[in-house]
Design brief:
The protein has eleven helices and 13 strands. By secondary structure, the chain is of the alpha/beta class. The protein is globular and about 50 Å long.
């Protein structure tokens, strides 16, 4: 594996190319950008949904099929990275990689395919970077914000001021593992929803006190699950610009009425997303209940932008960066 020889000291000027790769439990996200003063010019973006967490068994061993899908995607991403020749790159693995730390061969093969080191980050570090990615580009830095990211294998919850987190948590509760557990065949009946809500409550309730004690001025959701739900809410006229508890209840009733994810007439989301929608929805609805969230706006930034901002702040001391 080739080592990156670029040091931070060599990046003390503008017009440097930075690359960030988020190896998530549902999708791999690459973003490559050139830093120009206080903004980024996007050079390349790539996303591929591979559902890595779906390949985990009860012993947290990753199936050969899941590993092959990841390696195939990594080869495509490596070509894009090589084409852009970034000055600095950061690659992180999240929830599924935390669970499969013992799979040394897989990690080594992935690093060889990418030709770069993969940093397996903790849940708290993932939460910190998500908060950084979401809040850095926001204009009103005086607001205290609650940020929630429901991923394939984990859910991150953060409260903070400006770009500084005050309280953060990462739960082993994601749209894929929740869907595998309670909606494995795609059926969406009321009984399975009840069981999924109970599981989500057991995971979420113990950590809610500190968040409610701190309070927040606005709640923000990011990443695939919440963005997909927001699109459905908007398309059905259940809300505009915000997700509410009422709109989530309408979506739950829609899924129960459909009885199976394949019966959902929702062209605005992919078939892959439909299969894991119920699991993610039960997590989000439970968060609304337990944290007493009135409404949630969405933000399209997430972990990968947090990585970019981190790289850029190492390059030069900055206050705000806009993508």
């Amino acid at each position: 594996m080739k080592k990156n020889q670029n040091s931070i000291e060599s990046l003390k000027s503008e017009n440097k190319t930075l690359a960030a790769l988020d190896l998530g439990s549902n999708s791999f996200h690459l973003i490559i950008a050139r830093k120009e003063k206080n903004t980024f010019k996007i050079i390349d973006k790539y996303k591929e949904t591979i559902g890595l967490a779906a390949g985990l068994n009860k012993e947290n061993e990753l199936s050969a099929k899941a590993q092959q899908k990841a390696l195939s995607c990594a080869s495509k991403i490596a070509k894009r990275i090589n084409a852009s020749k970034p000055d600095l790159i950061k690659i992180v693995g999240t929830s599924t990689f935390r669970l499969t730390r013992k799979a040394c061969n897989f990690l080594e093969n992935l690093q060889s395919s990418l030709n770069h080191k993969v940093n397996v980050i903790s849940g708290s570090e993932e939460a910190r970077l998500i908060f950084l990615g979401v809040t850095t580009a926001l204009k009103d830095c005086k607001k205290r914000r609650l940020v929630i990211d429901i991923g394939g294998g984990s859910t991150e919850i953060i409260v903070g001021d400006d770009t500084n987190p005050i309280q953060l948590d990462s739960l082993h509760l994601g749209c894929i593992n929740q869907s595998k557990l309670f909606f494995p065949n795609g059926e969406t009946n009321a009984n399975d929803f009840s069981k999924a809500f109970l599981k989500a409550e057991q995971e979420i309730r113990p950590i809610t006190h500190n968040f409610k004690r701190l309070g927040w001025d606005e709640a923000i959701g990011c990443s695939g699950t919440i963005l997909a739900i927001e699109r459905i809410v908007t398309a059905n006229g259940w809300g505009k610009q915000y997700i509410t508890k009422d709109s989530l209840e309408k979506l739950i009733h829609l899924l129960i009425k459909a009885r199976h994810c394949n019966n959902l007439n929702l062209k605005i989301i992919s078939d892959k997303r439909k299969k894991i929608l119920a699991g993610g929805l039960t997590i989000l609805y439970t968060l609304f209940n337990e944290l007493k969230i009135e409404k949630m706006k969405i933000n399209r930034n997430a972990l990968r932008e947090g990585l970019l901002y981190e790289l850029a702040s190492q390059d030069n001391k900055i206050d705000k960066l806009n993508i």
